[in-house]
Amino acid sequence: MRSKATETEQSASKPASTGSAISSGIGSTARVRTDEEEIPKLEWIKQLGVHHVFLALHPEEKKGEEKRTKFELTTRGCVSKRFLGKAKYKHSVNLKVDEKEIKRIEAIFKTSPDFKEDGFKYPIIGKNELRLVAPKDAVTNDDGEFDAVWDAQSVSKGGMPLPDVDEREPLPVTMIEEEAKIVVELTVGTWKWERGTNKGGRLDLLSIGLLEEANIGVDFGSPRKKRKTTKS
């Protein structure tokens, strides 16, 4: 999740335009270029069969000088399906996003050493839904509910930076309903099993910020009966 240490990563993850193209680097590093901007050079590092994406080291930086964290992205959309209740793991959200965001996510996956167009399984449902699943070490409460939920209604639509974790107002997970508008923080990974014939990508859910509640302006309560009054 976002902290002061990851502000550089967050600012580097703006939505890309349509017509994205890939300029691959050597080995496990690559740079993603779009019509309007360039996402910094990325590096894929493998752990337990999964490649995770990091910002590539600058030529002047030395390995081991500072602990590196995964490249975090943010995206906004509308909840189409969610499972965030009591469970030990596998909390998930399906998020409806626009075409530009789908292309941005696909462009990042294409830089992975695991990627091959034939048979690659994107965590995308239909044409415009991202499938995000919380990792096993995700933040949960004592009841096993996904607990990294906060009030993001003050975040502007124009891309205002997300507040630091310790400045966020927590919300109950029950407020994340279908059709709610949210902003999520996530990381990206890829995997390849069974001698390379089974490969795909994953989007790890880190936090959810509520931008707008579902069914705003709708009252599901019983209609009040109009009372007849008499003038005295």
Ordered list of secondary-structure elements with their pairings:
Layout: H1 7-11, E1 21-24, E2 29-33, E3 38-47, E4 50-55, E5 73-83, E6 92-96, H2 99-109, E7 120-121, E8 124-125, E9 129-133, E10 149-151, E11 181-193, E12 198-212
Parallel strand pairs: 7-12, 9-12, 10-12
Antiparallel strand pairs: 1-2, 2-3, 3-4, 4-11, 5-6, 5-11, 6-9, 8-9, 11-12
3D architecture notes:
With 232 residues, the chain is mainly β. The protein has one domain (4-212): Beta Barrel (OB fold (Dihydrolipoamide Acetyltransferase, E2P)). Helices cover 7% and strands 35% of the residues. A 5-stranded mixed beta barrel has the order 5-6-9-12-11. A hairpin with a 4-residue loop joins strand 11 and strand 12. The termini are far apart.
Computed CA radius of gyration, to the nearest angstrom: 20 Å
Report strand %: 25-35%
How would you classify the helix and strand content by structural class?
mainly beta
The CATH topology is what? OB fold (Dihydrolipoamide Acetyltransferase, E2P)
Q: Can you list the strand order of the major beta sheet?
A: 5-6-9-12-11
User: What sort of overall outline do the alpha carbons produce when their principal axes are compared?
Assistant: globular
What is the β-strand count? 12
Largest sheet: 5 strands, mixed, barrel
- What letter string, H or E per element, gives the SSE order? HEEEEEEHEEEEEE
Helix content: under 10%
DSSP helical segment count: 2
- Uncertain stretches: 2-28, 33-37
Give the N-to-C terminal Cα separation.
64 Å
Please tell me the total number of domains: 1
Query: Which CATH architecture is right?
Result: Beta Barrel
Return the CATH class. Answer: Mainly Beta
Mean pLDDT metric: 78
